[in-house]
Amino acid sequence: MKKTAAVLLLMCFLLCLAGCGINMFENVEILRPPGVTGSNSGIRECIEASSGGNYVLKYPAHGSFRSAVIVKDLDFDGVDECVAFFKPDASDNIKVMVASLKEDVWQIDADFAESFAQIDTVDFCDLNGDGMEEIVVGWGGFNALPDKIAVYAVIDGEFKRLCAESTYDSFYCGRFTDSKFDSIILLTLSRADCQAKASLVTMNDQRNDLKLASDVEMNSDVAAFDRVSYGYINKNKYGLAIDGHMSNGKYVTQVVCCEGKTTIGVPYSHKCDYSVKCCDINRDGIIEIPSVSSLKTEEGYEPSDDVCFVTWNDLNLEKNTLNPKDYTVFCESDNWLYKVNGDFKDKNTVSPEKDGGYGFYKWNSEAYVPKKDELLFVIKRFDEQYGHSGDDGSKYEEIVRDGSLCYAARIESQSGISVEEIKENIILPE
Question: How many CB atoms neighbour CB 250 within 10 A?
C-alpha cells in the first residue's frame, strides 16, 4: 500500500508540473546549451539577451550540423563565429542569432525571427565569392514537406536574410557550376501539385540576392531518395549521384550536374531491380555509377534476385555514356560487395547455399548443358553470438565485421584461394 501511495504521489507531482507548463527536459537545454561553456560562455549571455529571458533551444532535424549552437569560423580569419537557434518563451517564432568575438567578448551581429515550425537542415557555403561562408537553413513544418530555404549573408557590411521561393525535399551546397562561387541544388519529389525536379539556386549578378538559375525535370516515379552522393562526376566537374526507390520496389539512379554557370541537367537516369548505390568504389576521387546484369544459372533455374554482377562506370558527360572501370558481385540481402575481374560472369557464378551462405563457383561452359562446376568458397553473414559454423557443422573463418554482424568465409581446399585474398576483395557498402 505504501508503495502504491508513493507512485500515486509521484504521478500527481508530475501532473502538476505539466499543468504549470514546465518541461523538465527543455529546462535542461536552457541551463546547459551545447558549446557555450568555458571561453564560449558569453554565447549564452547573447542568447539570453536576444530571447528576452527564457528560451528553448531548437535543433536541426537532418544534415551534418545538428546542434542548436554551431561554433564555426565563417570568414576563415582564425576566430570562430556562432550561429544559434532557439525559441523565446514569449514568442512563437524560432530565432536565428549570429554572434562573433570582438576583443574576446561575444557580441550579437544579427538575429532573425522565423515563423516556421521546425528547422530541417543547416549548411554553409560561399555563394557570393566574398571568402565568407553564408548560412543556409532549410525551414519547414512538422512533416509538412516540401520545405523552403533561407540564406543569411553579409551584404554591404551587414547580415541580411535572402529567400529562394522554390520548395525542396532535400538540398545540397557545393561547387556545381563553372563560376568561382558555390551554389545550391534543390531536389523535389513528384506530388499532386508539382513535377519532380532539380533546381539550381545561385546569387544574382549583383550578388545581393538569390535567384533560381534553372531547373530540370527528374524521374517522377521516385518515391524517396535513399542516398545522395556529392563529389566529382568526372575529373573536372562536381555533381550529385542520386539513388532512390519507386513505390513498386524498383530502384532509380540519376546524376545531376551543371553546364556553364546557370544550366542544370540530368545526363544520366536508369532504373534497376537491385539496391546497389553509387559510390567511389576504386577510391580514385570520382563517383562511379553501377550498372547491373544477371549471373549465369543452370538450365531450368531463374537468375537470382539476390545476387548480381555489377559493372562500375565513369560517366562520360560529353557523350552521356558509361565507361567501365571496376567489377563486383553484389549480394542484396546480406549487403556485401566482392571485387572480381571483368570476365568473372563468363567464367564463374554465385548462388545461394543451403546453409544461408553464397557460394562462388567455376562455370563449365564446355558442358553439353552449361552448369556450375567446382565450388571455390562460400561467404556467409553471422550474428556474432552464434559463432561461425554452418548448418552442416562446417567451420567459417571471419573476414570482416560490422557491429554485431560477422562476415565469414568457408574455403574449399582445392580452390587455391586464401582468406587474405577474400579479405582484400570484400566490401561492405555504407
Answer: 15
Beta strands in 4-117 (DSSP E): 55-57, 69-72, 81-88, 94-102, 105-114
Q: Residue 284 belongs to what H/E stretch?
A: none
Question: What does the alpha-carbon distance between residue 177 and residue 259 come to, in Å, rounded to a whole number?
Answer: 7
Digit-by-digit pLDDT tens for the chain (430 residues) are 444 444 344 444 333 333 333 332 333 333 345 455 566 789 999 999 999 989 999 999 999 999 999 999 999 999 999 999 999 998 999 999 999 998 889 999 999 999 998 999 999 999 999 999 999 999 986 655 568 999 999 999 999 999 988 889 999 999 999 998 999 999 999 988 889 999 999 999 999 999 999 999 999 999 999 999 999 999 999 999 999 999 999 999 999 999 999 999 999 999 999 999 999 999 999 999 999 999 999 998 888 889 999 999 999 999 989 999 999 999 999 999 999 999 999 999 999 998 889 999 999 998 899 999 999 999 999 986 656 666 655 789 999 999 889 999 999 989 999 999 999 999 999 8
Burial state string for 156-190 with b = 16 or more CB within 10 A and e = fewer than 16: eeebebbebebbbbbbbbbbbbeeebbbbbbbbbb
CA proximity to 296, closest of 251, 329, 250: 329
Ramachandran angles phi, psi of 48, nearest 5° = -65, -40
Total-model pTM: 0.85
Q: Report d(CA 189, CA 202) in Å as an integer.
A: 21
48-74 core/surface letters (b: 16 or more CB in 10 A; e: else): eebbeeebbbbbbeebebebbbbbeeb
DSSP three-state, residue 290: strand
Strands 118-125, 134-141: pairing kind = antiparallel
Nearest to 349 by CA among 383, 375, 316, 312: 375
DSSP for 26-56 reads: HHHHHHS-TT-SGGGTHHHHHHHHHHTS-EE
Q: If you search the block for the grid coordinates 550579437, which residue do you land on?
A: 108
Other C-beta atoms lying within 10 Å of the C-beta of residue 368:
6
d(CA 30, CA 270): 49
